[in-house]
Amino acid sequence: MSSANRSRNSRRLPPVRCEMREEDQPTCAGREEVVLVSPDGQRHRVCPGHGANLWLTHPAWHFSADTRPKAIAAVLRQAFGGSR
After folding, report:
1. From residue 74, how far is each of 4, 10, 25 by CA, in Å?
2. Distances from the Cα of 19 to the Cαs of 2, 28, 41, 47, 54, in angstroms?
3. What is the mean pLDDT of residues 17-28?
4. CA–CA separation, 15 vs 83, rounded Å?
5. What is the mean pLDDT of the segment spanning 18-41?
6. Could you give the angle at which helices 69-80 and 48-57 cross, rounded to 10 degrees?
7. Is the CB of residue 9 less than 8 Å from the CB of residue 35?
8. What is the pLDDT of residue 16?
9. CA dist list (Å): 30 to 9, 42, 50
10. CA–CA separation, 7 vs 4, rounded Å?
11. Integer Rg of the chain from CA
């Protein structure tokens, strides 16, 4: 295997890890991983699209400290629209 093949394969991003992902009809939006915490302390790993949905519909949920600022920005873009 040449080094060109390895470098091209290494650029491939891992699949989005989203607890709400549906295999038959994937509705995930965004590449960043968002960690939201529910009032009972349960952590939910979702994509920015589902994170926006949960964050807007459940005001008591908050972002975990594990969530990167880039991922929070992606959730806000999904929730309110806007440029990159």
Report:
1. 32, 24, 21
2. 36, 10, 16, 8, 12
3. 73
4. 24
5. 82
6. 70
7. no
8. 62
9. 20, 22, 9
10. 5
11. 15
